């Protein structure tokens, strides 16, 4: 037996791992702290101050008891339009408003004013122009100090002749003004740590002598800023809840607070009556090493991000600063001789966990006793913190869970047989094992690294095994799809056909991928799959087009394997997941496991004990715990790398860049906070030009029209749109400079459609509701002007919350029709057309190819239209193997292409078609713009995005 040597402790242990666990949890030694602030800081406003007074024990101002602990009945409320859904809210942690001292307020008590500042107070800026200039130069243009100085010199020189005053003298003055902003101000601090363990008597490795700096910001102050944001007030859940469909009472999961984990945490917290009425704030963390420059040396950084579970997934995904950089962790570097030693590995792991524990330590008091914080809706509330999910890839997950690589971080399945059913890991079970077994048995039998203590061990209600979140990017998109299945297809072909023939087949697959027709936002693969460095976006793009490319070259079981995986991926990324969706997800998992056996039977692979594939089994349970996974994915932290790490690094002079990056991030936060504040006060309406004109002349303002900015229809990207969710879909001709007037006969000649005028007359009769009621053989045809307006695109605005979208779930894409796209080849997109709104999915839709967009005037009414070629559906259900609908170009009885004119109101959105290649090899000369003209049958690509997947999945 081994005793604990700490004074006053009388615990004994059977082995060293149990003693290590005990010491790290109950007798931790925190690293020494050296505080450093890179820029001048300002004091927080009094509205954000934390009050440390003792809170009333279960009573408010009125002296009446608050939530009765014996009342276990959830609070039910209808939500959404038409009472289609209802929620059961947690009965005890109710997010009840209080005053600044923590005394609960009566129901209906008005909120306090968010600010007492005047609507013309631009402090610390002197005017709107000064703020807009600083924001434009620093945030949007990311201009260097030298270029800012040059620009300001030119600008100030232009003012000399008029006697005008410069806005900023130079970049230093601009930076000083930004730094004096009190909003969004959370200072950077630093602590240093070093190795304190046993030293060898000789050949001391360099890492033992090094000091490691960790820069961080107070997570409590970052959370305070997030909770106080008025723009988040309508997108925050103050209470855990369970949501149900009213008609069927079936449950559904969306945002984090709808999951079982938040509810169970609230149950545990509310055992203490003093917490009743509080708001539970789960802390979501994420970290991931990133490389910012390979050409100039291996510059790695280790950012740590924070979010809170109360803000909804659409905010976290919409790049609205719902995920905040709070630290740069240390990365110990070592030469090859020492990097693989057990001592260095153990130090590196413990440095990671000790750093996290120290960074988060200021949250600890608020995890058991409520503290008071100001919220963006104008109310104070009591807050209880809790460590929530941690977003990380597999390599970081094993580091977090102190698990041996190759084991599952969630369950106890053996490393060699991961797909067997096994119990979930838990903190209590792991601690019992560590007290019972030595380090070798822990590693070999349970995959536990027993001499490292997870950072969660010192925090209440925190179980690291439960808190590790799903990782769609690395587990599914880059892992199972790209690194496993795509590589297995190549190995399978070589095993079945030999290297030479397999290479010929792979070249044809690459040509198929390269020849896919263009689509808004679709990444191009001009050389197929052959490029060196794959990103997550590359893998996501390949998923959209890969399945039809391999069909005909591989057995149907492989096609069905890919289909099952793709359907699983798109299902788990839905913004709302119902009980029915979970059943479909489990069916996709079962089909994937069934059909992938062809790879083992053919000898392509020997085992499926792969942690990333195995993780699919845990998705249904973790969705029930944490809600829809699209709000807890490394895709979010990866995108944050660009704004928080990579772009700031590029703006540095490369000399000690980290300090410069900290200042850049701090200034970006201040500018963003100022913009939110000015917007909330209605000070940023219209353009800066119109606002300035208004100051000088009311008349000039009244005659001054807003200069319409050109939209993004000339870029091949779709865009998130921040507008209310008031419509499901709306299509209109794009407002574009590429608009021209021609005659109808000229358009007919360009399209080689001599009967186009007749088609237009038939369209007008249909629009006037006269076609079917015409008794005369020669009706009086409606008239229209000789000139028509031709445009190159239409804009479709539709509700697509599972894709990248605005705060209301709205997304805009452009449907193209032009004889030269971006000064290159012609582009004529396909689209869905509403033909029967009473039917679901493809049963109420048809496919057309847009030959031209135009508008014309008839009887003083403008008609926005499209000349289209129709497609016919093949069969009355999707293809059995791929799960996709098949269409082919439609022909008239005279075997001419079926051409028509439709109103743009009947368009739904763009559609993407991929040819049925069968076994026919693709010509090396086939280009993407040839695709729709070179084949006779096509798949409707339901994997082009999540909205298309949902739309086409409603058909069966």
What is the element layout, followed by pairings?
Blueprint (H helix, E strand, L loop, with lengths): L1 E2 L8 E2 L2 H11 L48 E5 L5 E5 L7 E2 L29 H13 L4 H15 L11 H9 L8 E7 L16 E7 L1 H9 L13 E5 L5 E3 L6 H10 L9 E9 L2 E4 L5 E3 L1 E6 L4 H5 L6 E5 L7 H4 L2 H18 L11 E4 L5 E12 L2 H8 L25 H10 L2 H8 L17 H4 L4 H26 L1 H16 L21 H15 L5 H17 L4 E2 H17 L1 H5 L9 H4 L4 H8 L7 H17 L6 H24 L7 H9 L1 H6 L15 E3 L7 E5 L5 E5 H8 L4 H12 L19 E5 L1 E7 L10 E9 L8 E2 L1 E5 L10 E14 L2 E13 L12 E4 L9 E5 L3 E5 L1 E3 L15 H4 L3 E3 L5 H8 L3
Helix pairs in contact: 1-11, 2-23, 14-15, 14-16, 14-17, 15-16, 17-18, 22-23
List keywords for this structure.
single chain; 956 residues; alpha+beta; globular; 8-stranded mixed beta sheet; 32 strands
Summary of the model, kept short:
The chain is 33% helix and 18% strand.
If you average the pLDDT, what whole number results? 86
What is the percent of helical residues? 25-40%
> Low-confidence spans: pLDDT under 50, at least 5 residues?
29-71, 698-711, 774-779
Quick one: biggest sheet? Answer: 10 strands, antiparallel
Q: Work out the radius of gyration.
A: 31 Å
Identify the overall geometry: globular
Instruction: Give the count of helical stretches.
Output: 29
Structural class: alpha+beta
- Beta-strand content estimate: 15-25%
Number of strands: 32
User: What is the end-to-end distance?
Assistant: 65 Å
């Amino acid at each position: 037996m081994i005793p604990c040597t700490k004074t006053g402790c009388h615990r004994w242990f059977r082995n060293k791992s149990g003693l290590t666990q005990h010491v790290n949890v109950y007798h931790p030694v925190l690293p020494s702290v050296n505080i450093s602030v890179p820029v001048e800081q300002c004091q927080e406003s009094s509205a954000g101050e934390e009050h440390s007074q003792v809170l009333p024990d279960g009573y408010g101002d009125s002296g009446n008891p608050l939530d009765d602990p014996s009342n276990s009945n959830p609070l039910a409320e209808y939500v959404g339009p038409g009472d289609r859904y209802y929620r059961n809210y947690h009965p005890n942690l109710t997010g009840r408003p209080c005053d600044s001292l923590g005394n609960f307020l009566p129901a209906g008590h008005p909120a306090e004013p968010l600010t007492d500042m005047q609507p013309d107070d631009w402090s610390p800026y002197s005017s709107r122009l000064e703020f807009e200039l600083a924001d434009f130069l620093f945030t949007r243009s990311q201009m260097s100090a030298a270029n800012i100085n040059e620009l300001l010199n030119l600008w100030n020189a232009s003012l000399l002749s008029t006697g005008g005053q410069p806005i900023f003298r130079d970049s230093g003055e601009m930076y000083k003004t930004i730094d004096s902003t009190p909003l969004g101000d959370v200072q950077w601090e630093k602590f240093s740590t070093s190795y304190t363990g046993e030293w060898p008597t000789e050949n001391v490795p360099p890492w033992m002598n090094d000091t490691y700096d960790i820069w961080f910001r107070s997570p409590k102050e970052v959370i305070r800023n997030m909770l106080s944001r008025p723009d988040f007030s309508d997108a925050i859940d103050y209470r855990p809840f369970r949501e149900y469909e009213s008609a069927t009472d079936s449950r559904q999961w969306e945002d984090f607070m709808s999951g079982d984990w938040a509810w169970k945490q609230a149950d545990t917290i509310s055992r203490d009556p003093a917490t009743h009425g509080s708001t539970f704030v789960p802390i979501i963390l994420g970290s991931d090493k990133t490389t910012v420059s390979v050409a100039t040396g291996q510059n790695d950084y280790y950012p740590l991000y924070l979010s809170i579970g109360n803000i909804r997934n659409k905010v976290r995904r919409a790049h609205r600063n719902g995920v905040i950089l709070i630290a740069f962790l240390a990365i110990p570097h070592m030469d090859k001789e020492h990097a693989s030693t057990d001592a260095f590995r153990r130090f590196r792991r413990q440095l990671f966990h000790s750093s996290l524990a120290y960074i988060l330590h200021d949250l600890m008091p608020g995890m058991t006793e409520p503290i008071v914080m100001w919220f963006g809706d104008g109310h104070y509330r009591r807050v209880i913190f809790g460590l929530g999910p941690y977003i990380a890839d597999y390599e970081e997950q094993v580091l977090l869970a102190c698990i041996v690589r190759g084991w599952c971080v969630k369950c106890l399945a053996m490393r060699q047989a991961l797909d067997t059913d096994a119990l979930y890991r838990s903190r209590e079970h792991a601690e019992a094992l560590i007290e019972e077994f030595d380090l070798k048995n822990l590693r070999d039998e349970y995959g536990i690294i027993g001499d490292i203590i997870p950072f969660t061990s010192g925090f209440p209600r925190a179980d690291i095994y439960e808190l590790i979140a799903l990782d769609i990017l690395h587990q599914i998109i880059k892992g199972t799809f790209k690194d496993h299945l795509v590589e297995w297809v190549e190995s399978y072909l070589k095993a079945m056909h030999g290297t030479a023939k397999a290479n010929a087949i792979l070249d044809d697959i690459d040509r198929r991928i390269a020849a896919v027709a263009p689509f808004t936002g679709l990444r191009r693969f001009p050389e197929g799959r052959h490029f060196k460095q794959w990103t997550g976006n590359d893998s996501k793009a390949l998923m959209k087009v890969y399945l039809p490319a391999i069909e005909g070259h591989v057995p149907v079981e492989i096609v069905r394997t890919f289909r099952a995986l793709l359907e699983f991926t798109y299902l788990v990324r839905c913004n709302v997941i119902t009980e029915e969706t979970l059943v479909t997800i489990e069916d996709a998992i079962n089909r994937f496991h069934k059909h992938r056996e062809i790879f083992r039977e053919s000898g392509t692979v020997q085992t499926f004990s792969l942690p990333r594939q195995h993780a699919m089994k845990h998705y249904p349970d973790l969705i029930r715990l944490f809600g829809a996974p699209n709000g807890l994915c490394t895709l979010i932290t990866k995108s944050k790398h660009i704004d928080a790490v990579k772009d700031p690094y590029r703006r540095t002079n490369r000399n000690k860049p980290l300090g410069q990056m900290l200042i850049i991030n701090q200034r970006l936060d201040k500018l963003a906070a100022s913009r939110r504040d000015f917007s909330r006060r209605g000070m940023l309406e219209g353009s800066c030009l119109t606002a300035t004109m208004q100051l000088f002349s009311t008349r000039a303002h009244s005659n001054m029209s807003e200069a319409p900015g050109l939209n993004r229809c000339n870029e091949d990207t779709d865009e998130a749109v921040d507008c209310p969710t008031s419509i499901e879909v709306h299509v209109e001709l794009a407002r574009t400079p590429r608009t021209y007037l021609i005659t109808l006969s000229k358009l007919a000649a360009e399209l080689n459609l001599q009967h186009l005028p007749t088609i237009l007359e038939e369209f007008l009769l249909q629009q006037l509701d006269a076609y079917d009621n015409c008794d005369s053989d020669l009706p009086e045809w409606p008239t229209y002007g000789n000139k028509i307006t031709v445009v190159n695109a239409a804009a479709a605005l539709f509700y697509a919350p599972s894709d990248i979208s605005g705060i209301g779930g709205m997304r805009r894409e452009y449907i193209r029709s032009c004889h030269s796209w971006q000064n290159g080849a012609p582009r004529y997109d396909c689209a869905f057309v509403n033909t029967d709104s009473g039917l679901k999915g493809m049963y109420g839709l048809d496919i057309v190819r847009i030959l031209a967009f135009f508008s014309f005037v008839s009887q003083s009414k403008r008609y926005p239209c499209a000349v289209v070629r129709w497609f016919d559906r093949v069969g009355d259900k999707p293809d059995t193997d791929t799960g996709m609908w098949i269409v082919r170009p439609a022909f008239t009885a005279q075997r001419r292409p079926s051409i028509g004119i439709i109103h743009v109101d009947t368009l739904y959105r763009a559609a993407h078609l991929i040819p049925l290649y069968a076994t026919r090899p693709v010509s090396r000369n086939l280009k993407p713009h040839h695709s729709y003209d070179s084949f006779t049958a096509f798949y409707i690509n339901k994997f082009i995005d999540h909205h298309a997947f949902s739309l086409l999945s409603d058909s069966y």
